[in-house]
Amino acid sequence: MFRPKLPTMPQPTGLVAPPAVVIEPTTITPGTPATPSVPAASAPVAAPSRTTVQLTPGTALALVAGGTAVVLVVGAVLVSMLLAVAVTAASVAVCAVVLRSLLASEAKRR
Length: 110
Known about the structure:
The protein is mainly α.
């Protein structure tokens, strides 16, 4: 009655086929390292042209203002989260003091 009954694994009821793909082990033979091919220096090749970013005083001011705004927003969010945690901790502390006072006054009445 108190011994658990373990289920038995059911046996397959149909045709059991072997796996379709059999993977054979292979040996790894080290090869010779290939030498990198060096292109012929027939003519000087110009570097690919890149677009240069020019910072004008207006764009620099916009970048500074954008960075300052991001820092202020992130700071405000973090400070508000810290304030929420502090308010919650203070309210829990007040509740604990009130409960302790109620329990102590109840013990004095008896």
